[in-house]
Write a structure and sequence with these properties.
The protein has 193 residues and is an all-alpha fold. It has eight helices and no strands.
Length: 193
């Protein structure tokens, strides 16, 4: 036997101009739909561009002959393990507890990370060589613009963010921007062929 306390039913709002104006900055449902369509198309275009970049870079890396020193790969695996542990911890599960549940060990996890670590290192090294070969440079203004984007993402004053970013971080940021320029260069060259 059971006692019924309550019956609920979801009432979906009517799709009309009033609904559109309540949930968005648009006055009409047609404007709202047009904006949603535009957002979806932009997201799809970005995903396609990212996939194209990945394909081009993958092909270049696949054709590169690089011998990676074991200590370099080990260090990359260690960094990946640290990142993994931080993500697990942020979800409320310490790495040690995860390993107890799954029967994994640090060594097994590192071995799982090894193929991805090698791919990451090869990709980075190939792109750094392209940066050198093509004399790709970035301006101080481009670095400052990237720092301002970071400041906006963290909701920090751009001037404060520039104070936090030291010379070493600026160099890393500059290299990341050069790497992106190298990727853009590869994609542009791939389209010509």
């Amino acid at each position: 036997a059971c006692k019924l306390l309550e019956i609920q039913r979801k009432d979906l709002p009517e799709l009309n101009d009033e609904f559109a104006s309540e949930i968005s900055q648009f006055e009409t449902l047609d404007e709202y739909k047009a904006d949603l369509k535009k957002q979806l198309e932009e997201a799809k275009a970005k995903a396609a561009a990212a996939q194209n970049e990945n394909n081009v870079v993958e092909k270049v890396v696949e054709n590169a002959e690089i011998e990676l020193p074991a200590p370099m790969v080990d260090m990359q695996c260690e960094q990946m393990l640290d990142d993994y542990a931080r993500r697990m911890q942020s979800q409320g599960l310490p790495l040690e507890q995860y390993m107890q549940y799954t029967g994994m060990t640090v060594e097994k996890l590192k071995e799982q990370f090894r193929p991805q670590a090698e791919r990451n290192l090869k990709t980075r090294l190939v792109l750094e060589e392209i940066v050198k070969a093509e004399n790709i440079a970035v301006s101080e203004e481009a670095i400052d613009a990237e720092i301002e984007k970071m400041a906006a993402a963290y909701k920090i004053e751009p001037a404060k963010m520039k104070e936090y970013v030291g010379a070493e971080q600026r160099e890393e940021l500059a290299m990341d921007l050069k790497i992106q320029e190298a990727v853009d260069f590869l994609v542009a060259e791939a389209k010509l062929q």
